[in-house]
Amino acid sequence: MKVVIKQKQMLLIYLIGFIDATGLSIVSPLVTPLFYNESGLMAADSHPLTRAIAFGATYGLYSLCMFIGSPILGSYSDRAGRKLTLSYCLAGTAIGYILSGIGIIEHSLWLFFLGRVIDGFTAASMTTAKAAIIDLTQSEKIKYLSFFMASVALGYIAGPTLGAIIYHHFGLSAPSFFIAGLAIINLLLILFVFKETLESHRKQESLFRSIGKEVMLFFDRPRIQKLSLVYALYIISWFSFTGFLPMLLGLHFKQSPESIGLYFSLSAVVVVITAAALVTPCTKRFGSLNTYCLSLVVAALSAFALSLTHSNTLAWCLLVPTAAGFTFGYVISTKLYSDQVDSTQQGWAMGINSATSALFFAVAGFASGFFSGVNVSLPFTISLITGLASCIFLLRFRGRLVINVRLET
Questions:
Q1: Whole-angstrom Cα distance, residue 284 to residue 261?
Q2: Which residue, of 92, 107, 365, 377, is most buried by count of CB atoms within 10 Å of its CB?
Q3: Non-local CB neighbours of 260 within 8 Å, separated by 6+ positions
Q4: What is the rounded CA–CA span in Å between residue 279 and residue 394?
């Protein structure tokens, strides 16, 4: 059956991605000052390794909680609908960032991390938004997932610049409260504008019902297991670069928070162009798997080269292949997850996709945080090794995965 694209719904979903990404990326220029400046969260006499581990835990703890929450909330959205699930997620985001902001004001590390825990557990709004896109556009999902990625990238353009400006004028805690405000705006849009995209859902379904069944479902899906290994290696490669890029730019290249924010903004411009204009034609021309492998090899090699150079000019140039390559990987891997299940399990599949992201963001965050305390360039070596490994395993599993399935609506 031909899918009727609901343009108003799609625009609202893109707005969800934009606002969420703005909230997430607004802290990118600020993480280094939080743990390495005297006005931040750490005591002045803190050991450099302790600071590096706390830096990694900022991402890692969030991701670990996201790993727990995303499959639960993703599966819940398949039963109770996308709208209610998005409402829970955004309320949790607002509460989490308010607590983190208070923690920064009070110089309370535990309160800051408590906010990260709450925000991480409820960080499934993008997961549910992707499932809603697939509800509406199953036969052309890679095209519209690419557009969603472009809207997310636009948020990543706005976020770092806003973060640097707010930090400069209002201090370290202000961006957290700004993010909470964005989440509340997004929540109001969901409650009063967004229309349910899942045609058959049971509104009275309990949030935590059948969690064990959903977990066991993963072990009954060998294709999802194999794809998750490929995706896990991709995530470690991606996060070892993006998560520790602010540290590299600040400590190795001596860039200011404003310069780091600009770097991330320009990277996001590359992501927008890649997602909106390049992903669909390249995958049609060369195939999903070939495009994935070539782009990820280029991205991993570029990330590694960036950690070796001492030239600011070359560092700016290397952002183009790095950002573009990781963008191809994200969109194609998300589409591959969707291909492995039918239309009744898209929320679950996106939840597993996000849970895999979260778990290995956490692994990369804690591990690379430790290694960066030894040498700031080591996370980028990890990025190279795991990026190449992801391509090798995808090529090995290519005959066992469902590729380019046109799902029934």
A1: 34
A2: 365
A3: 28, 29, 32, 160, 164, 246, 249, 250
A4: 18
356 in a structural domain: yes
Q: For 43-59, what is each residue's pLDDT tens digit?
A: 767 777 777 777 777 76
Cβ neighbours for 199, distance < 8 A, ≥ 6 positions apart: 135
- Report pLDDT digits (tens) over 59-77: 677 777 877 888 788 888 8
Whether residue 207 lies inside any domain: the answer is no
Distance CA 89, CA 315 (A): 36
Q: Is the pTM of this model over 0.85?
A: no
Which amino acid type is present at position 32? T
Tally of residues, the chain: 409
Residue 1 lies in a domain: no
Tokens encoding 122: 């409820």
User: SS in 3 state form for 175-230?
Assistant: HHHHHHHHHHHHHHHHHHCCCCCCCCCCCCCCCCCCHHHHHHHHHCCHHHHHHHHH
Write down the residue that tokens 């923690």 correspond to.
Answer: 103
The total number of structural domains in the chain stands at 1
The answer to whether position 2 is within a domain reads no
Other beta carbons within 10 Å of 284: 13
Residue 133: domain span: 7-197+213-400
CB 189 within 8 A of CB 86: no
What is the C-alpha separation between 323 and 213, in angstroms, rounded? 37
Question: Other C-beta atoms within 10 Å of 406: how many?
Answer: 10
CATH number, domain containing residue 260: 1.20.1250.20
